[in-house]
Design brief:
The protein is an alpha/beta fold and about 450 residues long. It is built from 15 helices and 15 strands. Helix 8 links the parallel strand 8 and strand 9. The radius of gyration is 24 Å and the shape is elongated.
Amino acid sequence: MKVLMFGWEFPPHIAGGLGTACYGLTRGLAKNDVEVIFTVPKAYGDEDQRFTHIVNASDVELSVCGELSTSIEEREFWDKMTFIHIDSNMVPYISPEEFEVEQNEYKSRVERNEIEYGDSDVWKERYSFSGKYGANLMEEVARYAIIGAQVAKENEGKFDVIHAHDWLTYYAGIAAKRVSGKPLVVHMHATEYDRSGENVNQVVYDIERSGMAAADKVIAVSNLTRKIVIEKYNIHPDKVVTVHNAVRFADGGKVFESRGITDKIVTFLGRITYQKGPDYFVEAAAKVLQKVPNVHFVMAGSGDLFTHVVKRVAKLGIADRFHFTGFLKGDEVHRMFDMSDVYVMPSVSEPFGISPLEAMKSNVPVIISKQSGVAEVLEYALKVDYWDVDAMADAIYGLIEYPALSKMFSDKGLKEVTNLKWDKAAKEVKDVYESVIK
C-alpha cells in the first residue's frame, strides 16, 4: 500500500507535537508495509528519510499558464479558496507588471497558433515556502493547495490513498483528491476549539470543516477530539475514527550530565498559550512554594502568553524559584525530562498530548488535566481538572514529598507507556486506509 501524505513540519524542524507525531506514524507505517510519500512546504535536507520519501513543496515546479486549462470542477475548487486575500500575484518574486506581460505573451502565442491552449511547458515557477506559522500563513496554505494538486499529478499511479494532517494541509489533500480521484483521509490533531476555546477563528474553522466534509474518513487522536468533531463540526459519527497517538525517543539516546542541584524540579513543557493552561501551572507553583521552598519550577516553551506569565510570576514573588527556558527541541527536551522530578500538563483542552508520554518514557511521574485525550489511555498518571489549582498543587506536593509515591508512578508509568507503540497506532491507521480504498 502507498500513501501520499501532506504535513506542515517534519523533524528535526518542528514547532510542536504535530511533526513528532507525523514522524512516529511514518515509522510505524513503514513497519506495517505502507510506503509514504510525505510532502512538506519546506524541507531542509536533513530529515530522516529511512522510513518515508520527503517531497519538498518548495522544489515542485508548477505550470502557471497551464492553470488556465483547469477543468470546471477544479476551477470550482479554486473559487472556494477566495476567502484568502493575497496582496500580491500568486507567483512570488516577479512584479504584477511582469506577471501581466507573461500572461499577455502567452495569450498572443496561443492566438498565433504557436502553442496549444494550456501548454504546460510555457512557463514554470516554484513557490518558495517559509514552512513557518507566520503572518503569511494563510497565503502559504492557499499555495500549498495548488502544489498539492501538482504533486498528485506528478505521482499519478504511485499512491492508493491521500492523508492530510491538520487544517493547514486539508485543502492540499482536497486538491490532490480532485486531481487523482483517490480517497482522502484527514487527521485531526487539534481543533480550533482546542486552540481558541469558543472564540474560534471562523476562517480556520471553515477550512477544518471543509476538509472533514470532503474526506472519506476522519482520524481523531482521542475520543475527546472525536466528540468535538461530531458535535461542533456536524461530521457523521460513522466517518470519524479514534486512533490514539504513541511515543518514541530517538534510538541511542544520550546520557546527560548531572543537573547539579539537590532541589526538586517541576516542569511544564509546551506552548505558552491559552490552550496549554500555563496560568494554572503558575498558580499551583505559588501554592506549593508556600509549603516547600526548595523547589524549582521550569516553564519550557514560548507563546503569546509568555509576557503575561512572566509578569504574573513576578507579582506572586516567586521569580527566584521560576525558570523560563524558551522553546526546546530534540536532545534539549530529553535533557529537560532527565532533570525533572515531576512533569505537569495542565491543558485547558488537549486533543491528545504526547509530552506526558515522553516524560513517562524518561521515568518521570506526570500530572495531567482530565481535559486531555491522553488521559483516556493512561492509568498511572495523576489526573486533575485544569482549573483546580489546589488539587494540582496537592498532586505536585505528594510527588515531591513522598518518594514511594513518586517511584510507584514513575515505575508503573514507564511500563505503561512502553506499550504505547507507534507500530500499533500505525496498524490502526492502515485499517482506516483499507476501509476507504475501493
